[in-house]
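Format notes (please read before filing issues)

Several people have asked whether sequences and structure tokens are stored in separate files. They are not. Every record keeps both together, in the order shown below: the sequence lines, then the token lines. Line labels are part of the format and must not be stripped during preprocessing.
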Amino acid sequence: MKGKGNARARMQAERAARAKKERLYRRLIVSGAVLGGAALLTGVVITVTGSGGGRTDAAMAAAMKGPLVVPQHASGTDGTVITYGDPAVGRTLDVYEDPRCPFCGIVERGLGATMQQLADEGTYKIQYHIATFLDDNFGGNGSKSALGALGAALNQGTKQFAALHAELYKNQPDEREDAFADQDELLSLAAKVPGLDLAAMKKAVNDGTYLPWTAKVDKAAGKDLPEAWKKAGLTGPSGTPAVFLDGRRLSVIDNAQAAISAEDFKGLVAKGK
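Then the structure lines:
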């Protein structure tokens, strides 16, 4: 009986340790994946599942040192911002995200279509600021590879970018997996997007045409987000997802860690008029 009791106690202790580790890990994500070094939390061990079909770290590093090619339709300083909607519209919705960030996926799947609908109607323009820091925090190259593919779609048009953006988040892997690092995975998702020139996509993704650009986009996002946070009068760690309307932060995730409703989002937008 004593042996069974000890075994039961060990099992309970192991379960408690795993639960604690998971809570710590989730804390890293829930507040928004924090920029820079968040994965170094003591006691959190993150295992990244490789894609098998992606570039090695050395190959990625070499590709990112290639010639800088800025996609057509990019905007902002050095083409580091992706603007969706009429650039002449006065109001601006700034969206900060990382392709591997799970809560960015929750926001996109829950509110992406509504955000873009309002942009299509001229309520505001959307400025996407895309970071790739989760590659550094968790290991792998999925965020950079996904952003490079989005750059290839953007080169064809902002509508193509928006469609692939939605498709990637619709099929977003667990952030501890690195599925987006696989070029074949990205191209299979691109094939689901109507209107994309798949031959051009394949060449750009396999050649890594826009990977040097991703480094500049990531650097700009990492610099701009803390500044946006301060301008909104906020303190504490800044991270993704983060949504600002004319500098005012919109809380787009509720206490249940789900995206707010489309109606609630429209209400937040209307308050700023």
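For reference, the curators noted about this record: The two ends are 70 Å apart (CA to CA). Confidence is low (pLDDT under 50) at residues 17-48.
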